[in-house]
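Look at a sample.

——
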Amino acid sequence: MEFAASPWLFAVLGGAIMLGAALAYGILKSHKASRRQREAAEQGARDLYHKDQSKS
């Protein structure tokens, strides 16, 4: 392997590793909605549905 290709190899591999690390961090830090948040979202969806139905 040429020495001129080495920086590109490190750049490509380093970029892939950094992207993988960023994705893993995001996945680990994301959390599911709490029960209260899910209930509030469901109630909001019901309210919007009923509001839309009353216009028809």
Summary: The helical segments are 6-29, 35-55. The first helix runs from residue 6 to 29.
